[in-house]
Amino acid sequence: MVDNGTAGSPPILGPSRRCVVTGAAGFIGSHLCEALLDAGHEVLGIDCFTDYYDRAIKEDNLSGLRDRPGFRLAEEDLRSAELRPLVAGADTVFHLAAMGGLLRSWTWFKLYQDCNILATQRLLDAVLVENVGHIIHVSTSSVYGRDSSGDERQPPQPISPYGVTKLAAEHLVGAYAANFGVKATVLRYFSIFGPRQRPDMGYHLFIDHILKGETITIAGDGRQSRGNTYVADCVAATVAAFARGPVPEVVGETFNIGGGEVISALDALALIERIIGREATVVHGPSRPGEQLQALADTGKARRVLGWMPRTGIEAGLRAQVDWQTRRAVPTGGRS
Ligand SMILES: NC(=O)c1ccc[n+]([C@@H]2O[C@H](COP(=O)([O-])OP(=O)(O)OC[C@H]3O[C@@H](n4cnc5c(N)ncnc54)[C@H](O)[C@@H]3O)[C@@H](O)[C@H]2O)c1
């Protein structure tokens, strides 16, 4: 276990707990591992480095983690690994591993099905048998469908295979909870951005293309809007659900986790142009099948129950992401 007494600042969340984070090498998972270690917890990360994007990027995500005391990475695939030994003795499992992004889910459906549904079922089996105290399952606003604005009571109507597989995973979590008493909480993240954002995501592409002087293709008219969530805010919400623990207000519940500001793709692009100080060359392409038109989370429940609220606005968050991407774009001899 991590020695809280020698860690410098006192632990934020009380005694050190054993955490398992799936998808630890990914965009959000790597930030979550760092936050849990910062709070004095022990973290076993699991990741199989799917080739959805380059392994080198994920190695970069892990660069601040690999040598930290209290952190261990198991390079294992949730679709096939023996999972019981990995979760045995864990207080909490955070399940972030998934195939993300909606576009490829039309053509790579089997992969989405296996990584998002089968892997979740195998993990739930292991969590059940090993009697893990709490599983925090990460889901998405994509389960709601074309208009994802509102609170958790909106009926889910996913319009992409990605959203369908993520909703199926949520239902599996519910089935294990209803039948076997697995203590689970579902967090539906809304469009996360900030340093380490996946290279296929909109803001990453906008910034990358402006920095390289390449043409940006905007899907549709660019008026699709998002209540984007800064990555540190979504991590803070996840840690808040963990800190509350498996209490009745949290277990069996679903929480929207979203930023408070809504912005269209075109306005976000204009803001990025202003931050970088360079104009983009833009063409408009066809709308993408399965894309949400609007997604603004009503986060009243998370604020009330978890005592959480988003703190970083779109401009400050985009400045941090531009800064990160700019440092990565310029070879300096060291990694950012
Ligand atoms: N990024 C967003 O805006 C966003 C929004 C809503 C929800 N989410 C959810 O958040 C979670 C993390 O997303 P992200 O953007 O960090 O994605 P990411 O692709 O950067 O990270 C996911 C990680 O999971 C790993 N993984 C996938 N399948 C695996 C398997 N079978 N076994 C082991 N590891 C596996 C991948 O290698 C990857 O490193 C996902 O569950 C996603 O659905 C993300």
Account of the protein in words:
This protein has 336 residues and is α/β, with parallel strands linked by helices. Helices cover 37% and strands 17% of the residues. The chain contains 10 helices and 14 strands. A 7-stranded parallel beta sheet has the order 3-2-1-4-5-6-11, with helices on both faces. Strands 12-9-14 form a 3-stranded mixed beta sheet. α6 (202-212) packs parallel to α8 (265-276), α6 (202-212) crosses α10 (314-329) and α8 crosses α10. It is globular and about 55 Å long. It starts with 17 loop residues before the first strand and ends in a 7-residue tail after the last helix. The structure holds nicotinamide-adenine-dinucleotide.
Summarize the structure.
This protein has ten helices and 14 strands.
**Biggest pleated-sheet summary:** 7 strands, parallel
Query: What is the general shape?
Result: globular
Count, helices: 10
Helix content: 25-40%
**Strand composition percent:** 15-25%
CATH class of the domain at 4-193 and 231-258 and 297-311: Alpha Beta
